[in-house]
From TrEMBL:
Its EC number is 2.6.1.83. Pyridoxal 5'-phosphate binds at Y72, S108, K109, Y132, N187, Y218, S246, F247, S248, R257, N292. One of its GO terms (biological process) is lysine biosynthetic process via diaminopimelate, diaminopimelate-aminotransferase pathway. The modification N6-(pyridoxal phosphate)lysine is found at K249. Belongs to the class-I pyridoxal-phosphate-dependent aminotransferase family. LL-diaminopimelate aminotransferase subfamily. Gene3D superfamilies: Aspartate Aminotransferase, domain 1, Type I PLP-dependent aspartate aminotransferase-like (Major domain). The gene is dapL. This is LL-diaminopimelate aminotransferase. Substrate binds at Y15, G42, K109, Y132, N187, N292, R388. Residues 35-405 form the Aminotransferase class I/classII large domain.
Length: 411
């Protein structure tokens, strides 16, 4: 009989968001008249920018003409898209990233998981706690951890606690770790990192020959001019960091699918024979073997983000969600709750009141005001006692949810 990858059995029962959906669906079935407002999963609700739609419609027409039809595209993504990304997202901010170092993909979730394939299984891996659960679960699946303890912490991972005490930015570890996941603006806490803080990580990584996985999926939400959008704005980061970016949260592509990963050609790690190997070569080899690229139509849609109209439209989209976040922060504060984040990020991180656990607060909010959020404990043991509210929804729903919480929810 065939055998399975036993590492999957170490995982907690379900991925966080499907588990929330399961509970919400059960509640909805039992209470068919309840008008549930979902501020749980960070999924966008507003339509695609017009510039992206127009570009994609044109691309569909091109696919209908034998003279402009496209078959397989380059596995790394079309050069016209990568060049615009390199120029506008990186070089314009003083980050020396070349178009050849950019890989277009169908999502940052996939890439942050898949990147582990080019690394060995003997690395010491650090994650913050709380953390985006994909980083942990993909390491479990890859066999990079032992079993979970009662708190859900996996043996073999180094957990770096983040809380209000350290502004939700982890202390630089005293021990040596090989791979470090950093996410700024942070999911789930909405925290941001200063240049000085990121420099400490870059210096640490250089001193310890570590690699930083920098998830910048929410960089478009940075409004404060002093906050870096890319780790490559920090001198030396080209030698130590891989960066993940996405069109999901800036241009509403969660259902359209397009993202990018930057693997600088200056980045190396050790082979078993002691030689230094270029990570770009390995990732390129992986992608060209296992991936056929993102569709031409979608890449044309992503390219339109870099046009003047596209830039104005995504700015408007991001401002819309940031205004939602502001409303959430203000109303929850007025309701007597302690809130964090939501200023340069679409997530508001809330301390649960009266010592309620994260799931108790989730149930109470669902049952009393029919509002769904995400229990902080789903992001890690140190997320217990916190709750995440996403600003991704219509204005009407956000206002209605906050009205219900301020008027009917007794803290
Ligand atoms: C979240 O709610 O954390 C998001 O769904 C993350 C993601 O985009 O995968």
């Amino acid at each position: 009989m065939a055998s399975i990858n036993d590492n999957y059995l170490k995982l907690k029962a379900g991925y966080l968001f499907p588990e929330i959906a399961r509970r919400v669906n059960a509640f909805a079935e039992a209470n068919p008249d309840a008008k549930i407002i979902r501020l749980g999963i960070g999924d966008v609700t507003e339509p695609l920018p017009e510039a992206c739609r127009t570009a994609m419609i044109k691309a569909v027409e091109e696919m209908g003409d034998r003279n402009t039809f496209k078959g397989y595209g380059p596995e790394q993504g079309y050069a016209w898209l990568r060049e615009k990304i390199a120029a506008q997202d990186f070089q314009a901010r003083g980050a020396e990233i070349d178009a050849s170092e950019i890989f277009i993909s169908d999502g940052s979730k996939c890439d942050t998981g898949n990147i582990l394939e080019i690394f060995g299984h003997d690395n010491t891996i650090a994650v913050t706690d709380p953390v985006y659960p994909v980083y942990v679960d993909t390491n479990v699946m890859a066999g990079n951890t032992g079993k979970a303890n009662d708190k859900g912490e996996f043996e073999g991972l180094v957990y770096l606690p983040i809380s209000a005490d350290n502004n939700f930015t982890a202390e630089i570890p005293s021990q040596k770790v090989d791979l470090i996941y950093l996410c700024f603006p942070n999911n789930p806490t909405g925290a941001t990192a200063t240049k000085e803080y990121l420099k400490k990580w870059v210096d640490y990584a250089k001193a310890n020959n570590s690699i930083i996985f920098f998830d910048a999926a929410y960089e478009a939400y940075i409004t404060d001019a002093s906050i870096p959008h890319s780790i490559y704005e920090i001198p030396g980061a080209r030698e130590v960091a891989i960066e993940f970016r996405s069109f999901s949260k800036n241009a509403g592509f969660t259902g359209t699918r397009c993202a990018l990963t930057v693997v600088p050609k200056t980045l190396t790690a050790k082979a078993a024979d002691g030689s230094d190997v270029e990570l770009w070569k390995l990732w390129n080899r992986r992608q060209s073997t296992k991936f056929n690229g993102v569709s031409y139509i979608v890449q044309r849609g992503a390219e339109a983000v870099y046009s003047p109209e596209g830039q104005a439209q995504i700015k408007e989209l991001v401002s819309f969600y940031l205004e939602n976040a502001k409303i959430i922060r203000e109303k929850l504060t007025a309701a007597g709750l302690s809130v964090y984040g939501g200023v340069n990020a679409p997530y508001v991180w809330v301390k649960t009141p009266n010592g309620l656990s994260s799931w108790e607060f989730f149930d109470k909010l669902l049952q009393t005001v029919n509002v769904v959020g995400t229990p902080g404990s789903g992001f890690g043991a140190a997320g217990e006692g916190y709750f995440r509210i996403s600003a991704f929804n219509s204005r009407e729903n956000v206002e209605e949810a906050m009205k219900r919480i301020t008027e009917k929810f007794k803290v």
